[in-house]
Design brief:
The chain has about 200 residues and is an alpha/beta fold. The chain is about 30% helix and about 25% strand. Helix 4 crosses helix 5.
Amino acid sequence: MTELWIGSNNKKKRAELERMLAPHGIALRTPAELGQPFEPVEDQPDFAGNARKKAQLLAQLAHGIALGDDSGLCVDALGGRPGVLSARYGGPGLDDAGRTRALLAELRSVPADRRTAHFVCSLCVCGPDGTVLAALEERCEGTLLDAPSGVAGFGYDPIFVPVEFRGAPDRTFAHLDAATKDRLSHRGKALRRLLEVLPGLLGQ
């Protein structure tokens, strides 16, 4: 299998990437295997900038081809927040459930018809010298519930209802099986586009 370094040690995010990349003969390696710190500063104003920083740093440290992924939730009623701060929203020390509670507290007075939001996934692939080989971005539109529902997924999945599953009852990403989520999600859409060019970049 061909190796691709990914700029994340998040086990659930890695599982999503593996589901789509492994069938194409791509084996994933993570920063935990480097034997040295991988601590990119996510200080860019957009997802694309942060994805690029992760990919460039990891590619140079690993001397290989690396994939940077930055993703998050953008809520219309909050002017796009939490956006690039999605993984750190609400302050330090919070887990996924804590960040979700913090977000829902901000939305307490927002009526259901104004709780629109979208997930964004930005991907960047860099060569060993840090050169950008590919960059793309996709999104998934939906709405937010006023309380978590469902047990699958991670992050804000338990409150996000993709537009395809609005109805009675609403079904969040945390209700969906892996194949359905991959078909609809921002990351799934981005990875399918990336797979159109990735084999060539990896020399397959």
